[in-house]
């Protein structure tokens, strides 16, 4: 099947069966497409819809996003993970707003914005600006790797380059927005990772993986490696006013800029830290341990629930450590496991409003 035939078959299927009612498919603009594309990285559509709608209600324009405090942006991102995406959104919005509020109209210019790579730039320019720009997100990689039976893991440079060549060859000069959404839709709904629905795929006739019986093998998975495990103790410290101490993490790195619980290598270190602040702390209650998995390691954490026996007699640095009541938790950007822990162990009468 030639590229022209592939395009025609795919677009005909999209016209009849494609998804056209997703929130970011309405009132299409570079800003809305950009926000949706960043949210959809590493995250399923069903999970993104609610976040996108809340985010757009609060930050309806690039100017409103640029003018917001990073803390608030992180609050609206809390739970989506990969928080560098939110920090880069904020930085990029400030750059665009400072330049007059218009997004770049070239691939190179778009890729200069923080957090925007080649595929995201192509999606914005094709969907919102009508340019003939290829994309290569996870769904498109899967479709093209199967269609041309491209061996190897798409994360490898040589495999990615081959897929970019195919993507460029198959991207039409007309109806680029529809084509871009169509090929993403095909990967998300029919050409899925497991159990692809080849029987009703509009381009199945030309799919080499189907012809060769390789749909389960392609694209090849990332070579497995054993993830290291890191240990941490989280101090859930409550003062006499029934407030919980939260610390702001550094602006970069894991959970950068979010509010989290004080972390320690062991229980003794947590006790030493409290004594350094002049606090008399009851013997901590060791709560059930949990695990949070990042892309490059597992974090095993053990929560320590402790209460102060004496009033607070020192002043914390408000920009990095604050005593919060449960009613304030919903106003903060919190890592997902910290939010779950607070919801689970903070007394219900102090969490009713936001729990």
From TrEMBL:
UniProt EC number: 3.2.2.31
SUPFAM superfamilies linked to this entry: DNA-glycosylase (SSF48150), Nudix (SSF55811)
Enzymatic class: hydrolase
Gene3D superfamilies according to UniProt: Helix-hairpin-Helix base-excision DNA repair enzymes (C-terminal), Hypothetical protein, domain 2, Nucleoside Triphosphate Pyrophosphohydrolase
InterPro entries with a match to the protein in the record: A/G_AdeGlyc_MutY, DNA_glycosylase, Endonuclease-III-like_CS2, HhH-GPD_domain, HhH_base_excis_C, HhH_motif, MIG/MutY, MutY_C
Catalyzed reaction equations: Hydrolyzes free adenine bases from 7,8-dihydro-8-oxoguanine:adenine mismatched double-stranded DNA, leaving an apurinic site
Keyword tags: 4Fe-4S, DNA damage, DNA repair, Glycosidase, Hydrolase, Iron, Iron-sulfur, Metal-binding
Cofactor: [4Fe-4S] cluster
A Pfam family that the UniProt record links to this protein: NUDIX_4
Cofactor: binding details: Binds 1 [4Fe-4S] cluster.
GO terms of molecular function: purine-specific mismatch base pair DNA N-glycosylase activity
HhH-GPD domain segment(s): 39-189
Function: Adenine glycosylase active on G-A mispairs. MutY also corrects error-prone DNA synthesis past GO lesions which are due to the oxidatively damaged form of guanine: 7,8-dihydro-8-oxoguanine (8-oxo-dGTP).
Family: Belongs to the Nth/MutY family.
PANTHER family, per the entry: ADENINE DNA GLYCOSYLASE
Protein name: Adenine DNA glycosylase
Native organism: Methylomonas aurea
């Amino acid at each position: 099947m030639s590229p022209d035939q592939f395009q025609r078959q795919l677009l005909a299927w999209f016209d009849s069966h494609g998804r056209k009612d997703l929130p970011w498919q309405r009132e299409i603009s570079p800003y809305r497409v950009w926000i949706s594309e960043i949210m959809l990285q590493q995250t399923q559509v069903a999970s993104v819809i609610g976040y996108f709608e809340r985010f757009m209600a609060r930050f309806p324009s690039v100017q409103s996003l640029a003018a917001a405090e990073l803390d608030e942006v992180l609050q609206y991102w809390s739970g989506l993970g990969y928080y560098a995406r939110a920090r880069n959104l904020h930085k990029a919005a400030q750059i665009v707003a400072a330049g007059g509020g218009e997004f770049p109209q070239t691939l190179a210019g778009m890729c200069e914005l923080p957090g925007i790579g080649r595929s995201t730039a192509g999606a914005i320019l094709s969907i919102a600006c009508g340019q003939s720009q290829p994309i290569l997100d996870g769904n498109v990689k899967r479709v093209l790797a199967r269609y041309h039976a491209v061996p190897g893991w798409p994360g490898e440079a040589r495999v990615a380059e081959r897929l970019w060549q195919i993507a460029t060859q198959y991207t039409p000069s007309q109806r680029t927005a529809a084509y871009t959404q169509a090929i993403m839709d095909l990967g998300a709904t029919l050409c899925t990772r497991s159990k692809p629905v080849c029987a009703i795929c509009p381009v199945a006739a030309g799919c080499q993986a189907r012809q060769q019986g390789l749909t389960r093998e392609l694209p090849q998975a990332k070579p497995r490696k054993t993830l290291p495990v890191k240990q941490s103790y989280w101090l859930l410290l409550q003062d006499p006013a029934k407030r919980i101490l939260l610390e702001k993490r550094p602006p970069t790195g894991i959970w950068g800029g979010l509010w989290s619980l004080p972390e320690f290598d062991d229980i003794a270190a947590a006790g030493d830290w409290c004594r350094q602040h002049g606090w008399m702390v009851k013997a901590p209650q060791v709560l059930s341990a949990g695990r949070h998995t990042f892309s490059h390691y597992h974090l095993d954490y053990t929560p320590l629930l402790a209460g102060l026996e004496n009033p607070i007699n020192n002043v914390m640095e408000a920009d990095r450590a604050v005593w919060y009541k449960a009613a304030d938790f919903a106003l903060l950007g919190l890592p997902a496991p910290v939010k779950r822990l607070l919801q689970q162990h903070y007394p219900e009468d102090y969490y009713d409003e936001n729990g």
